[in-house]
Amino acid sequence: MITESMAGHSFPAVAAVVVVLVSCLLAPPAVTASSVNISTYWGTNSAEGSIQDPCNTGLYSIVNIGFVYKFGNRWPPVLNLSGHCNPSVGGCTYLGREIIEYCQKKGIKVLISIGGPSGDYNLTSHDDVTKLANYLWNNYLGGSAVDRPLGSAILDGVDFFIEKSTTMYWDVLAETLRNLSNNGTSQIKLSATPKCHHPDKYLGTAIQTGLFDYVQARFYNESCCHYDGSFDAMKSEWDEWIADDKVHKVFVGVTASAKEEGYVDPQRLIDNFLRDAVNSTKFGGVMVWYLYTDHNSGYSKKIKAWNPPVQTTILY
What we know:
The protein is globular, with a radius of gyration of 23 Å. It is an alpha/beta fold. Helix 4 (126-140) packs across helix 5 (170-183). The protein is 32% helix and 18% strand. The chain has 10 helices and 10 strands. It has helices at 11-26, 52-55, 96-105, 126-140, 170-183, 204-207, 232-243, 266-277, 291-297, 299-304, and strands spanning 38-42, 62-72, 75-79, 109-115, 120-121, 157-161, 189-192, 214-218, 250-255, 283-289. Residues 1-33 have low confidence and may be disordered.
């Protein structure tokens, strides 16, 4: 239909307008860049606030609760939350449905992390593996236990933050947890958080099972591959991680504290590393260690403010 506003124009001009409008309607919608997925750790400093706090910032896609820091050698597993509450006397059950599920309803994955930088842990036998896997499944995941340390909330998975003890049995633990998940009512995420050198001394064999949904390679406190004024070592190891057929997604692990070795300013990280890293289909996001120092430095805010030229995969 020719409207009055078109009446004074020639037919070719009107036709051209119609063609442009139709083309716009038929064209695929523009893809808007999504913010980078950010993973962090809660439970390592009593001054970092409630676990609900990071879930309200809009910064994080993953919150790892750490750590189950003692297990193996016939020890019963112990969860240490650095003074937030005392799990051994049921003092952390309030974190369950009221707070953790609040985070999950916002689309944030909440994982229990085992090991840690200062833990006392080891796996010396298949029996150790079975006991730890059952403990994790029944106390934090889809199983059942009378006294679950974090109440009735069902966490989304297990993070392996291993940097000491044996090089054996981590693969068996991953397989056992995956089997429990496959036979249960809920699928879990498995995360590996090794040091940046590939292959990792402790988790290398486990990662080669292909069972981990993503790897968080820690590019700090590791002189052979962290930032030292040059990104060359970081880029070299990054290339190794993304070339590994058994690795599905990789997070760039950084420290938010300028006092730690390997610290790199977030804007410098974006300009000199992330702009290239996001072009890999295996780029998963950034892991920022850890929540307390991240709050103080504003590290994640600076990463989150950057919209990369390509979309990062949302973790489901």
